[in-house]
Design brief:
It contains 8 helices and 4 strands; from the N terminus they run βαβαββαααααα. Strands 2-1-3-4 form a 4-stranded mixed β-sheet, with helices on both faces. Helix 1 packs parallel to helix 3 and helix 4 packs parallel to helix 6. The protein binds glutathione.
Length: 205
C-alpha cells in the first residue's frame, strides 16, 4: 500500500486530498513519528514523500502530477492547452507561491535585528499578496483556476491559502477568493483529509 509522509496542514495535505479524490488506497505516516524511515528515502526528511515498497518519490509538484497521470485522472488534463494551463497553475502554486510563504516563515523564526526582519517580512508579504491578486484576477467570472473544471492546481492553491491566517503580516483575501477556497475546501475529499490531519480550514472565513 502507498504511504504518504505528512505534516498536518502542510503542502502534503494537497497529496492527501488528491489521494482521496482518486479513491486510492493509502496510509498516512506522520513525518516526525516516522522520521528514521523517512530519512532513508529522503535526505531532507520533508513532506510530501510517498513510498510503496521499493518505490519512493518526493517533491510535491512532481508527486501530484505523477499521481494524476498514473490514475489517468481528469484532475490533470492529459494533453493540449488544457494540460498546459493546469500545469502552469500547479507549478505557480508549488514553485512561486509556496517558496514565498517559506521565506516568510524562515525570516519570522530567525533572530535578526528588527529592521532587517521587518523588511524581509514586509517584502515576502507583498509578494504573497501579489500572487493572490493574480489568482483573484484569473478567477474573475469562473469557478476554478482553469475555468469550470476542477483541477489538481485548485487543491494545492487552497491548501496554501490556509497558511495565511496567523501570519505576522497582513494578506487580504477578496470575497471572490474566499468563496473559491470554500468551494474547494467543502469537497468531501478535502473535509475528510482535514479531519484525518486534525486541521481547521480558516482561509474561507
Ligand atoms: N520542494 C519541496 C518543499 C517541501 C517543503 O518545504 N515541505 C515542508 C512543509 S510545506 C516541510 O516538509 N517542512 C518540514 C518541517 O516543517 O519541519 C516540495 O515542493 O515538495
Amino acid at each position: 500500500m502507498l504511504s504518504l509522509y505528512y505534516k498536518p496542514g502542510a503542502c502534503s495535505l494537497a497529496v492527501h486530498v488528491l489521494l482521496r479524490e482518486l479513491g486510492a488506497d493509502f496510509e498516512l505516516k506522520h513525518f516526525k513519528a516516522e522520521e528514521d524511515a523517512l530519512k532513508k528515502i529522503n535526505p531532507f526528511a520533508n513532506v510530501p514523500t510517498i513510498e510503496d515498497g521499493d518505490f519512493h518519490m518526493r517533491e510535491g509538484g512532481a508527486i501530484l502530477t505523477w499521481l494524476c497521470d498514473e490514475h489517468q485522472s481528469e484532475l490533470l488534463p492529459q494533453k493540449g492547452a488544457e494540460r498546459a494551463e493546469a500545469l502552469q497553475w500547479l507549478m505557480f502554486a508549488n514553485a512561486t507561491l509556496h517558496p514565498t510563504y517559506g521565506r516568510l516563515f524562515r525570516a519570522n523564526g530567525m533572530t535578526l535585528n528588527l529592521p532587517d526582519k521587518n523588511a524581509i517580512l514586509n517584502d515576502a508579504g507583498a509578494k504573497i499578496q501579489k500572487c493572490w491578486d493574480v489568482i483573484d484576477e484569473q478567477l474573475e467570472g469562473q469557478s476554478y483556476i482553469c475555468g469550470e473544471a476542477f483541477t489538481v492546481a485548485d487543491i494545492l492553491l487552497t491548501v496554501i491559502a490556509n497558511w495565511t491566517p496567523g501570519l505576522p503580516i497582513e494578506v487580504t483575501f477578496s470575497d471572490n477568493l474566499k468563496a473559491y477556497f470554500k468551494r474547494v475546501s467543502d469537497r468531501e475529499s478535502f473535509q475528510n483529509a482535514l479531519d484525518a490531519e486534525d486541521v481547521t480550514y480558516k482561509a474561507a472565513a
